């Protein structure tokens, strides 16, 4: 294997790792958004966990950017604007990415084992 082949493989591996981290950061931020919305709706813990998990699964099923935000805004019955929901999601995503950055050795779950 030449040096260029090794370099290409290294860049491909780095890209794959970054995409995996982004995938899990988005999933985790969607779960946190669901827990936030559930607390506003006054859902008990079990129902809040189920609601948050349903948001993660919806993102995986639809693969439509912004659909989770639309659903949360709808579920909150306009008590929060779409902009407020998007802002909260951005804050949560930034927090998750910062957490991943500061704790790089934390275990990344197997993608087939998502809740």
Write a compact overview of the structure shown.
The protein has 115 residues and is mostly helical. Helix content is 76%, strand content 0%.
Could you explain how this protein is built, in words?
- With 115 residues, this protein is mostly helical.
- The protein has one domain (24-105).
- Helix content is 76%, strand content 0%.
- It has 4 helices and no strands.
- It has helices spanning 3-41, 45-62, 67-75, 82-102.
- The longest helix has 39 residues, at 3-41.
- The termini are far apart.
- The mean pLDDT is 85.
Topology:
Elements: H1 3-41, H2 45-62, H3 67-75, H4 82-102
Helix pairs in contact: 1-2, 1-4, 3-4
Q: How many strands? A: 0
Return Rg in Å: 17 Å
Largest sheet: none
Choose one word for the global shape.
elongated
What structural category characterises the helix and strand content? mainly alpha
Uncertain segments are none
Percentage of residues in helical conformation = over 70%
**Helix-strand pattern:** HHHH
Number of helices: 4
In percent terms, what proportion of residues is strand? under 5%
Give the oligomeric state of the chains in this entry, treating copies of one chain as homo and distinct chains as hetero. Answer: single chain
* Overall tally of domains: 1
Distance between the termini: 40 Å
Taking all residues together, what is the mean pLDDT? 85
Protein name: DUF1476 domain-containing protein
Organism: Epibacterium ulvae
InterPro entries: ATPase_inh_sub_z, ATPase_inh_sub_z_sf
């Amino acid at each position: 294997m030449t040096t260029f082949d090794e370099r290409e493989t290294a860049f491909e591996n780095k890209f794959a790792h970054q995409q995996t981290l982004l995938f899990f950061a988005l999933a985790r931020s969607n779960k946190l958004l669901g827990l936030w919305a559930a607390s506003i709706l006054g859902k008990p813990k079990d129902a809040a966990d189920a609601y948050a998990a349903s948001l993660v699964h919806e993102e995986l099923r639809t693969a439509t950017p912004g659909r989770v935000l639309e659903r949360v805004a709808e579920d909150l019955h306009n008590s929060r604007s779409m902009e407020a929901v998007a802002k909260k999601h951005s804050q949560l995503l930034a927090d998750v990415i910062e957490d991943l950055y500061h704790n790089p050795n934390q275990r990344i779950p197997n993608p087939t084992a998502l809740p």
